[in-house]
């Protein structure tokens, strides 16, 4: 494979009524990613092409796109793995288009914000004037740690079939994060999050299609988080949920003892004979 | 009523339907004798426990079905006001269907 054809979605809201496809053929290099191809097009063929990218290593979550009809990170998708000579690149579905391949993710961030994605500590005095760190056992961390790897790329939201029909549906990313913070032993805000997600357009509209977990580039399983959130809400409603144990605070560090002076005879003097 | 209460009822009615439909299958298709015979129908109709079973399956079936339909309609991006209209419509339809359907077993009893 010496050449690769990119079918890129173009859309300029000032000129176009609806998105259209533009075709580019570029030279292929071993190890090239879809993002490398788009950067080549922008640098050498059409500098008006708009797309979002930053870290180029699957950490920032900026370059989420619909690649060959699947939501993926462009920087994380080697062209060779697609096993096709033609690659179709479009902006993420279920989001409005700002321009070309740039999706408007403000809806995702607004929904994410609505579920209070931060630790709401039961003891605010300790939060405001911390005396020490909160203790957390490894097992307690493992209850939610995989959901904490979310990079907010929006791929799960783009893959979700319920999001495609109901724009008010909270979506897999905010719901998974609602569980992530509610499962954190340091948190005391589960009730507030349950109230926010237990709505007609909330958690119960998830039909467990599993497309979100399939799409996630970080290996997070939002479908699992949503099932666990459903269980937590029902347990809480039936008063079967275990009362969260308030986090324990690590005791303040013991005062450091003065270091024992090194005996003189162990220190080599410069120029001294051994 | 919160959504989770409706969902809990959905699960409870689902389990209830499983057992009551099982009872129906046992009686109508697996039991000896002719359950559709006039005398056996009249015998069941005069029994308070059968009346309770009929009414329960009616309530469970109506709730389970209408809640499922509501879930389907909710996916059409309904605004809050339309959700309220939908809820009351479903309640009205449920009560009307129950009132109409419960007449036969109660009247026969």
Structural features, described:
The complex is a heterodimer of chains A (274) and B (109). Chain A folds into two domains: 3-103, Roll (Ubiquitin-like (UB roll)), CATH 3.10.20; 106-237, Alpha-helical ferredoxin (Fumarate Reductase Iron-sulfur Protein, Chain B, domain 2). Chain A contains eleven helices and seven strands. With 274 residues, chain A is an alpha+beta fold. In chain A, helix 3 runs parallel beside helix 8, helix 8 (172-182) packs antiparallel against helix 9 (190-197) and helix 8 (172-182) packs across helix 11. Chain A has a five-stranded mixed beta sheet. Chain A has a two-stranded antiparallel ribbon with strand order 6-7. The model of chain A has no long low-confidence stretch (mean pLDDT 91). Chain B is mainly alpha-helical and 109 residues long. Chain B has one domain: 3 helical TM bundles of succinate and fumarate reductases (Up-down Bundle), CATH 1.20.1300.10. In chain B, 84% of the residues lie in helices and 0% in strands. Chain B contains four helices and no strands. Classes of the chains: A alpha+beta (274), B mainly alpha (109). Chain A binds chain B through residues 162, 165-169, 198-205, 230, 233-234, 237-238, and chain B through 2-5, 7-8, 71, 74-79, 83.
Largest interface: A-B, 19 and 14 residues
Low-confidence stretches of chain B: none
Which architecture of chain B per CATH? Up-down Bundle
Architecture per CATH nomenclature, i.e. the level-2 architecture of the largest domain in chain A: Orthogonal Bundle
Strand content of chain A: 5-15%
Task: Report the total helices of chain A.
Answer: 11
Gyration radius of chain A, to the nearest Å?
25 Å
The oligomeric status of these chains comes to heterodimer
Task: Give the overall average pLDDT of chain B.
Answer: 91
